[in-house]
Amino acid sequence: MTQNSHIHVPPFTGPNARLPTRSERGLIVPPPGAIRTGSEVQAEEEARQALIRRLGIPTHAHAFYDHFASQMAEASGFLYGMVNLFLEEQTFIGLHNPAEDSGHPIIGRTMSRRDGWCPDVVRRKKALPLHDVRASPRFYGNPVVDAVGIHAYFGAPLIHEETGIVLGTVCIIDPEPRLLTDARRHRDIVKGTGNAVMKEITAAAPPS
């Protein structure tokens, strides 16, 4: 994939033109402290977008970040890896998919910010290790489970140290659940990758 390619396709292949959101399925229960005022959410959004522009982070498919996504997937043995910016949609500037002839769904470059588990990581501002999403009704009620059959997720936030702003996430997902005893290793893979991505973003940023 070339550095300047820009792919904007539905997040999942298949017959469903539209997937139900978690709220439509009646399966969301906001965690304590998760409810914020509209002005707080808007201020956070504006600060995030301004920082992404100031840092000069690409907002499209980028081979450099694809490499990070592939490293995560290969180190963990997961089928999918993402470097995910929180723009108007979740945007995978780095993406690793299984081989096209593998029989597994191929994930596109964007996904609604209502779906997946990365929104929880951004809100929490800390890593989220889900070795088996079926172990939690809150996390199992997710369109990604139905669309791709994902049962394992490990994600970590991309936090700009100077401002504390969360730019997005890095994550790995897989249709096979993982052993709880392996959870720390997978969590460390995504956290280490997140740190490496932020180090590169900071180093490449233009002078203020």
TrEMBL record:
InterPro entries: GAF, GAF-like_dom_sf. It comes from the Bacteria. Residues 1-24 are annotated as: Disordered. It holds the Pfam family GAF. Residues 63-182 form the GAF domain. SUPFAM superfamilies: GAF domain-like (SSF55781). This is GAF domain-containing protein.
